[in-house]
Amino acid sequence: MKGALREAVRQVVTSTGCDVRFTVQQNLLFTGLREEQKDLVNSILRSRGVLDARIAAVLRQSMACPALPTCGQAITESERILPGWPKAFRSS
Prior knowledge:
The chain is mainly alpha-helical. The protein has helices at residues 3-16, 38-47, 57-60, 78-81, 85-88; strands spanning 19-22, 28-31. A two-stranded antiparallel ribbon has the order 1-2.
């Protein structure tokens, strides 16, 4: 985690006192939140550019494996390609 996402997570945790969990599917979960904190979390994530309704669903649900050169099963370099996708795949 780096950049805007890291700063957003830090701000959410310090503002709400919640816990953070990571799943094997590379999801980040904020746990221990109260219902009334949901709007605060969403506003923090939007202000940091982490939640962006213009990003296509296919990109929001995607993840990249390390691929070449670290994975013997890889045939592509997905980790280098995926970060460039947000600009090309924003919905109108």
